[in-house]
Structures are given as structure tokens and as C-alpha cells.
Write a structure and sequence with these properties.
Elements: E1 2-5, E2 8-12, E3 16-22, E4 28-35, E5 88-91, E6 102-110, E7 128-136, E8 141-150, E9 155-164, E10 170-182, E11 187-195, E12 198-207, E13 210-215, E14 225-232, E15 243-249, E16 254-260, E17 266-272, E18 279-281, E19 286-288, E20 291-297, H1 300-316, E21 329-331, H2 333-336, H3 342-355, E22 359-362, H4 390-400, E23 404-409, E24 413-414, H5 419-423, E25 443-444, H6 450-465, E26 469-474, H7 496-514, E27 519-522, H8 532-535, E28 540-542, H9 549-562, E29 568-573, H10 586-593, E30 597-601, H11 609-631, E31 633-636, E32 642-648, E33 654-661, E34 672-673, E35 683-688, E36 692-693, H12 715-723, E37 726-727, E38 732-736, H13 737-743, E39 745-746, E40 768-775
Parallel strand pairs: 21-22, 21-30, 22-23, 23-26, 26-27, 27-28, 28-29, 29-30
Antiparallel strand pairs: 1-2, 2-3, 3-4, 5-10, 6-7, 7-8, 8-9, 9-19, 9-20, 10-17, 10-18, 11-12, 11-14, 13-16, 14-15, 15-20, 16-17, 24-25, 31-32, 32-33, 33-40, 34-39, 35-38, 35-40, 36-37
Helix pairs in contact: 6-7, 9-10
Bound molecules: alpha-D-galactopyranose.
């Protein structure tokens, strides 16, 4: 709800309040953001000022008590007594960078207008938008801030827009989407950083003095620094304490800047990375920032995450797949890499169909002369040798097996060794005459060019309509170097990175509208472009090329802070794992991947019958509880050597928990599981997913019970294993939600070398258990 009270604006959500006012000097003073409060006298929130402190500059003669350097501002600028990082920087035609944006007027209008050329959150309820118009009278430039409030999700979104109303061209060299002021600085900033195969590791930086910047300048939102971040206190825990969560609906270069001023005030701003940006605005032209998203929770990180999850599931993800259960897929990449052919794929698909796979995905290698990553990107027609019956021939056969069919594409790229490059070398992003820095043997198409966007739309339209294609994995596998567009003048080269993103959005927008039933999955060497911009078009994204269950538990924990489970796709792969060479049990790989949009990416043809039977059982189970995983409320528990997660159905009648152990502690039999999010007064039945255990995992300990000597790994050992399986422990407890959540379930004794029977919980390195919690009828 948006309320205007005299010169104040109060934005309330169900549990939060955000307030700011227009000061006497016409600036927007941020007053409060936090737990919902009732504002009786706004003066209480206003910092009192009589004199400018110390050696600070006076804003103007007229307001001798004002220095902008000590105000929490909604929109700051350069040159008028504020020395901190500004929201906006403009280079005027006279060479000056000084601006002074003061309040002109405001508009409160019904509905949420989509941003031109940029994705943004949407709202079926059509609430109000607050628009504040600021003006720099000296230079004739306008700055428009918009605010939108999502009451139930406790989310507020903001954007900034610059309009050049002067007669001369100006350059926008910085325009952050939002800025927040905090009156003290005892905060930590948590960012999610990493690299290929180790995305989204949480890093906490105490903010005490100076600047801390989390940013990407590689053209994509990047796995180096995801745009999602949090501001909280050192005392904040998963379930208690204040925490702010912020994100950006954008897929390109971004920056999140935190600065503690000389007065100990914290300013946080986030938006397009100003590094390298210089956007020329002619008279009457405008520049629009992407949409910033913010939420606050007094219920710790889990509370904040749940706000974000609900918001993304309802107001970012859209189309038919928003509420539709995501299919369990089998992807060919780690099973075959580039060595694919119709025969090989059909063999794999047959095995997939037998274990219950719903969607078969042909990954890279199917088009042009694509036998390695050195060539053919851009040549989007099937390789006749590999697919003699084309995409349709393969898709039809997959459909006959009862599965839907999907493909991999990487439309934004071109290989130098391709028909496309030979025909249109000028379409690649290159600086004419300058030797190019290479990346994965491919170059980026210059999406600033309309004709390149048209080519992508046309070639993909042709591919997607050439067969019954129901899923598309849209990949993007290199970052930017040699940033340049030969389609733009020299004074517009500072626009290239943002224009690229706008070009990409046009392609995604048109293709998702043309093919509304296709399930699109974003990908960029795994999670190199995992952001709300992509999720505005594609409902899910490949979280990481790393499918090692242990690393994945860390990566998925990272994503879970800012993104709901069903947006993160997660696959079960073979062992030794292709990224880490680690061997983890199949159950652990499944248990971790099940907390995401589940898929398999392994060569089922080479797997044993036992493994395939296990996979079949996993898939059967996942299908039964899929809606809890994909649409339930997620809670993080312990994290470290033990990973503990719970996901709870909306009605709180069903929940699934995971307990994953990295390394076993010897002679430590005790362990417990503490679910979260249950109904305190509901009676639940708590059980574990029971499994059969192979005696091979006990090695030559078999001789402790065997009447005859069994040589480890011998034929005899394997034969016994074939006919004789051990069972896992059985947890079987009926308890009220409060007892389960606050006391925790004391689990069966763990194996620790001194005995073993059917009640023993065999819990060694990398082992996971799934717990099923269902309301008693
Ligand atoms: C990227 C993706 C992988 C796979 C390959 C194919 O690395 O992240 O999943 O699709 O490309 O080349």
C-alpha cells in the first residue's frame, strides 16, 4: 500500500514499512525501511539539523543547515556536497558532471507499466505505482523514480529513468536502479560469488568503513558475482534477526555498491555496472534502468528467502510453466558429449523411458559440423550424418516412447569455423583490425545489431518449429572481450554491453511469445547468467555444470538464499563425477538433485540393473511428491559438515527433509533431524526413505559375519551382493509439529565400528537420507 502524507511517502507491505520524504531543500530523504510500523508523527524519523558538521560543504546559501553528505538520500548525484557513491552521474555538454535533482512532482497511478525493452516483475492484481519526478533545473535533465509494492511477498521494486529535456546531448555514465540509506553501519553484506563449477558461495563482508563492491563486467550477470545480495547483522541467523535481500531484474554487467560514510552511515546502491557505461542521450531521449527488487524480514535469512521465493514464483516467472510441474529430464551431455547419433540417442532414450523419464534432451553436437567445441556455432541445421532423419525423425521416435523431446541451442554465439561467420564476419563482436581474445573457441554475436537479433529469431523459429520440440536449453558459453559494435559510432561504444542485453531480451521475448508452450531453460556454462532477467523469460536455469552432489549441496544452498527451488535445475550424474572425480552414493546424488527441478545426466546404457532399478524408484518417488519440492516453502537448517533442508507443502500437511553428511566423525553415533516450517499443532508421521544397502560397501568386514572367507571384490563377494542386500534403519515416529521442529528427531544409532544390525544407520562420508513427514489423517 502506498500512502502520501503531506511531503512523505509511506510504502507498507504486510510486514514491512518503507518511508521517505521531500526535504525543505527538495531532496528525497530516506527515513526508514524495516519491520512494519505505524507512523503517527513523521518528524520522529527525520534527522534534526541546525548546522553543517565539520568541514562539510553547505548545499546552498538558501539551506545553510544542509550538507547532502550526511543525508540518507533516495537519489544522490555528484557535485553538490555529497561525496559518496551517487545513484546517477551525468556528463553534460559543457563537460561538467555536477547535477542537482530536486523534487518536482509525483504521480500515483493504477497498475504496473512494463519497462520498455527490459523485463520486469508483473502483477495480476494491478496495484498502484508511485512515480517521483525530480528535475535538475540548471541542466534540464529529469530523473524519474518509480516504486511498486507487492504486499503479500513483502517486496518493493524500484527503477530510475533519466530524460534529457535539454537542447544538448548528455551522457549517462552511471544510473543505479535503487539506493538505500542506513543510519548506522553495523551490517554485513553477503554476496554470492564463485566461478565455473563452483557458483554461489556465500561471502560475508563486514561493512565498517569505505566501499565494498560486488560486480560483474564480463557482459553477463556472472558466476563470479551474482546480483543477489543481503544486508544483515552479524547476529542474524537463519531464523531470527533483521535481513534485507536485494536483486536486480537484469542479465548484464551489474554492481552492488556498499559505502560507509565518514559519519558512519551506510549507503547501498545497485544497478547496471557503471564501469564502461556511457549512454548518449539526445534531446528528449530517455534511459531506463532495470528494476531493482528489495525485501526485508525480521525472521532471519529463511524469512527473507521465503519472501524472495514467493515473489519470484509469482511475479517474475511467467507463462504456462509458472505453475506447471517441471518434467524429469534425461540430458545427453555427460552421457555422450559430442559423440551423438540418432542410434545412440535412441538407445539412451529407451533406457530413460524404462526408468520413467518424462523428457529427453539432446544437448550440444547435433547441428552443422559440430564435432567439437571448435566449430559450427551459428549453423542451426541438423547434422545429416548424426541425424539422418532430422530433428523431426528423432523427436517423433522419442514421442513414440512416451517422452517429450527437447534440444540444446547456443544462439548468441558464432564459431569462426562456421558457415555463418564465413557469410557474416561483421556480425561477430570484434574490433576491426584488432586481434581477438578467444574464449571456448567462439565469438559473441553482436546483438546490438537488429539484423543479428532477426537472424537469431528466424533461425530459432525454424529450429523450434521443425519438430515437436517441447523444451529448449538456451546456453551462452563465453564472456565478453574486445567489446565493440561496428554498427555504432565511436561515441556510442559505451552502450554496447547494455544494448547487447536489450537485443537478447528482444530475442527471448519474441521467441517465448511465439512458442509459449516450450519449457525454456537458461544456461551459461552452468550458472554464469543466473538472474531475474533470464527468469522473466525462462522458468528455470541450469545451476552449475558441477553435478557432484557434495559441491551441489553448497551451490544449491547458495541459490536458495535468493531463488526458489524450481528455478534451479539439478541433475543426477555418474561417478566418479566428471568435474571432481568424487564418488558419492546414487541416493545422495538423487537426494540433493531432488531439491531442484530434477533431471538425470548419465549414461543409463552403461549402468547396472541395480542402479537402474534404484533410479526408477527415485523417479517414482519424486513424481509423487514433486509439487512439494517444486512449489513448497523451503527452509535451510544446519550447514557445514551437515546440510539440513526441509521443504513444506503450502498446506503444511507434507514435508520432505534431507540430512547430508560430508565427512564421518568416528565414534559419534548420535544425530538428529530438525525440520522447519511445520504446523506446530499438527500431528505428523516421520519416516525415512528406506533403501537397500550393498554389502560391497562394508569391504572385507563381510568376514566378520561370513562363515567362509570372502576375498574382497571377488566373484564370491559380488555374487553374495547380488542375492543378499541389507536394509537401512527405519525411522518411524508420530509427533506434533512443535516437537519435531523444536526438539528434533533423535535418529537411529550410526554405524561406528562396534556393531551392526538392522537398526544401525549406516552414515559414512557423503551419505544422505531423505525424511518424509506427513500429517496423520
Ligand atoms: C555448457 C553447458 C553444459 C553443456 C555444454 C555443451 O558447458 O553448461 O551443460 O550444455 O555447454 O557444450
Amino acid at each position: 500500500m502506498i500512502t502520501k502524507q503531506d511531503n512523505c511517502f509511506i510504502l507498507d507491505t504486510r510486514y514491512t514499512t518503507y518511508a521517505f520524504r521531500v526535504t525543505e531543500s527538495g531532496h528525497l530523504e530516506h527515513l526508514y525501511y524495516g519491520k512494519r510500523i505505524k507512523i503517527h508523527d513523521i518528524n520522529m524519523l527525520v534527522e534534526k539539523r541546525e548546522f553543517v558538521p565539520g568541514n562539510n560543504n553547505v548545499y546552498s546559501d538558501q539551506y545553510k543547515n544542509v550538507t547532502l553528505n550526511d543525508l540518507n538520500l533516495e537519489a544522490s548525484f555528484e557535485g553538490k556536497s555529497d561525496n559518496r557513491e551517487p545513484l546517477i552521474k551525468v556528463l553534460h555538454s559543457d563537460g561538467s558532471r555536477t547535477s542537482d535533482f530536486v523534487y518536482k512532482t509525483c504521480v500515483i497511478r493504477k497498475g504496473k507499466t512494463p519497462l520498455e525493452g527490459l523485463p520486469s516483475s508483473y502483477d495480476e492484481e494491478e496495484r498502484e505505482t508511485l512515480e517521483i519526478i525530480l528535475e535538475d533545473k540548471e541542466y534540464g535533465v529529469r530523473l524519474i523514480l518509480t516504486y511498486y509494492v507487492f504486499d503479500d511477498e513483502n517486496v518493493i521494486t524500484r527503477t530510475s529513468r533519466v530524460e534529457n529535456k535539454s537542447d544538448n546531448a548528455i551522457y549517462v555514465i552511471q544510473l543505479m536502479s535503487a539506493q538505500l540509506g542506513f543510519s548506522d553501519h553495523n551490517y554485513i553484506m553477503s554476496t554470492f560469488n564463485g566461478a565455473w563449477a563452483r557458483e554461489m558461495y556465500r561471502h560475508d563482508t563486514p561493512l565498517r568503513a569505505g566501499k565494498h563492491i560486488n560486480s560483474s563486467n564480463v557482459g553477463v550477470s556472472s558466476s563470479t558475482a551474482n546480483p543477489f545480495f543481503m544486508i544483515s547483522h552479524e547476529s542474524t541467523t537463519e531464523d531470527s534477526g533483521d535481513v534485507y535481500g536485494m536483486n536486480l531484474v537484469y542479465s548484464g554487467n551489474h554492481a552492488e555498491i556498499a559505502e560507509v560514510s565518514e559519519f558512519g552511515k551506510l549507503r547501498v546502491s545497485w544497478g547496471i555496472n557503471p564501469q564502461g557505461l556511457a549512454w548518449k542521450l539526445e534531446k528528449d531521449e530517455a534511459f531506463q534502468s532495470p528494476e531493482a527488487v528489495m525485501t526485508f524480514s525480521a525472521a532471519g535469512y529463511n524469512g527473507m528467502s521465503q519472501n524472495m521465493h514467493s515473489f519470484i514464483r509469482k511475479h517474475i516467472v511467467r507463462g504456462v510453466w509458472r505453475d506447471r510441474p517441471r518434467p524429469i529430464l534425461l540430458n545427453s551431455w555427460e552421457a555422450a558429449y559430442f559423440k551423438i547419433s540418432e542410434r545412440r540417442l535412441l538407445n539412451l532414450a529407451k533406457e530413460g523411458s524404462a526408468v520413467g523419464i518424462e523428457l529427453f534432451v539432446m544437448d550440444d553436437g547435433w547441428f552443422g559440423e559440430r564435432d567439437s567445441d571448435e566449430k559450427a556455432l551459428g549453423d542451426w541445421y541438423p547434422n545429416k550424418k548424426k541425424l539422418p532423419n532430422g530433428l523431426k525423425g528423432l523427436a517423433d521416435k522419442i514421442n513414440e516412447m512416451g517422452m517429450s523431446f527437447g534440444i540444446w541451442v547456443e544462439p548468441e554465439m558464432v564459431s569462426v569455423d562456421s558457415d555463418l561467420y564465413r557469410k557474416h564476419p561483421e556480425w561477430a563482436m570484434e574490433i576491426p583490425g584488432v586481434k581477438h581474445s578467444e574464449g571456448r573457441n567462439q565469438r559473441i554475436l553482436d546483438l546490438c545489431r537488429t539484423e543479428v537479433q532477426d537472424y537469431i529469431i528466424e533461425s530459432m523459429t525454424q529450429v523450434f518449429s521443425s519438430a515437436n520440440i517441447e523444451y529448449v536449453k538456451w546456453d551462452m558459453n563465453r564472456t565478453f572481450t574486445d567489446i565493440y559494435s561496428s554498427s555504432l559510432d565511436e561515441d556510442r561504444q559505451g552502450e554496447v554491453c547494455h544494448r547487447y542485453v536489450l537485443g537478447l531480451y528482444r530475442c527471448m521475448d519474441e521467441l517465448t511469445k511465439k512458442f509459449p508452450d516450450i519449457l525454456f531453460e537458461g544456461c551459461a556454462s552452468g550458472g554464469n547468467r543466473f538472474d531475474l532477467g533470464i527468469l522473466s523469460y525462462f522458468p528455470q536455469i541450469w545451476g552449475s555444470d558441477n553435478t557432484d552432489a557434495i559441491v551441489r549441496s553448497e551451490i544449491q544452498t547458495g541459490y536458495s538464499y535468493g531463488y526458489p527451488l524450481n528455478t534451479v535445475s539439478a541433475h543426477v550424474s555418474s561417478v566418479p563425477n566428471h568435474q571432481t572425480l568424487r564418488v558419492t552414493p546414487l541416493e545422495t546424488r538423487f537426494a540433493v538433485a531432488s531439491f531442484g527441478s530434477l533431471g538425470y545426466e548419465c549414461n543409463l546404457c552403461d549402468m547396472s540393473k541395480t542402479e537402474k532399478d534404484d533410479i526408477k524408484a527415485q523417479i517414482e518417488m519424486y513424481k509423487k511428491v514433486r509439487s512439494i519440492y517444486q512449489f513448497g516453502m523451503f527452509y535451510r537448517g544446519r550447514f557445514g559438515n551437515i546440510t539440513e533442508w526441509t521443504v513444506v507443502s503450502e498446506d503444511k500437511c507434507h514435508a520432505i527433509g534431507i540430512l547430508l553428511q560430508k565427512m564421518v566423525t568416528p565414534n559419534n553415533q548420535f544425530q538428529y533431524f530438525m525440520p522447519k516450517g511445520l504446523d506446530e499443532n499438527m500431528l505428523y508421521h516421520f519416516t525415512n526413505r528406506e533403501l537397500k544397502l550393498s554389502i560391497m560397501m562394508f569391504g572385507d568386514l563381510v568376514n566378520a559375519v561370513s562363515p567362509v572367507h570372502v576375498k574382497q571384490d571377488s566373484l564370491m563377494h559380488k555374487t553374495i551382493d547380488r542375492f543378499y542386500k541389507l536394509s537401512t534403519e527405519k525411522e518411524d515416529i508420530t509427533a506434533y509439529g512443535d516437537a519435531l521442529m523444536y526438539a528434533g528427531v533423535k535418529l537411529h544409532q550410526a554405524f561406528s565400528g562396534t556393531g551392526f544390525n538392522e537398526n544401525t544407520r549406516v552414515f559414512s562420508d557423503y551419505v544422505a537420507r531423505l525424511y518424509l513427514i506427513n500429517a496423520v489423517e
